[in-house]
Specification:
alpha+beta; Immunoglobulin-like; four-stranded antiparallel beta sheet; four-stranded mixed beta sheet
Length: 206
């Protein structure tokens, strides 16, 4: 076998092995991370997640945890929110249509309005996914709010996560509210509660 043939074989193997090594390094570096879709308008706005800054990215990979997200661009109102990344959390995404405030930004918006229209559809789908994820985790929320002349049942989502069921009723009708929850096939003791001027009967500390 000539030296030229051997050299070509070595080069060929190098072209195969190097991409495999690069792919392996990339895969290991992303292991344990969650892919988060990113959709912002303007699409070249700066996205800051924790201490990382991104631009012109359709998605990013983040380790599970809580992040402060800021999306900004000169001439537009800055958007800021908290992002919770969890391997079990469904539908997590960064969607931020920025509001134009300067004259130049307003003109840019008029010429590129389609970017915002596309984000409206994504935001609607995101809300649907998050709503379904909430129902999967807390089935009672699918039935809420419940309002009757005797009581009302709702819920709120604390900043730290989870769901708190709110009940507004007179003392004589609190049990009726719990009966309504049981009728949905749900154990009331599975949830945390807030009562208007009433004590929580499921609080073990009382």
């Amino acid at each position: 076998m000539s030296r030229r043939v051997i050299l070509l074989i070595i080069i060929g193997l190098g072209l195969v092995v190097i991409p495999l090594l690069i792919w392996g390094i990339t895969s290991v570096s992303q292991f344990g991370k969650v892919n988060i879709p990113v959709a912002v308008a303007p699409n070249d706005a700066e996205v800051k997640v924790g201490d990382q800054t991104f631009k012109n990215r359709r998605s990013i990979n983040l380790e599970p945890g809580e992040y402060q997200v800021t999306v900004s661009k000169d001439g537009f109102e800055t958007a800021s929110t908290k992002l919770i990344v969890d391997t079990e959390r469904k539908g997590t995404a960064i969607i931020a249509p920025l509001l134009p405030v300067s004259e130049a930004a307003i003109e840019w918006y008029r010429q590129n309005e389609r970017q915002w229209l596309e984000l409206e559809g994504l935001a609607g789908e995101q809300a649907r996914i998050e709503g379904q994820a909430l129902i999967d985790d807390y089935p009672l929320t699918a039935w809420l709010p419940i309002q009757t002349p005797l009581y009302s049942i709702g819920y709120r989502q604390p900043a730290e996560g989870g769901v708190v069921i709110t009940i507004d009723s007179g003392a004589g009708y609190r049990e009726a509210a719990f009966d309504a929850i049981r009728e949905k096939g749900i154990d009331p003791s599975d949830y945390s509660y807030e009562f208007k001027n009433l004590e929580n009967p499921f609080d073990d500390n009382e």
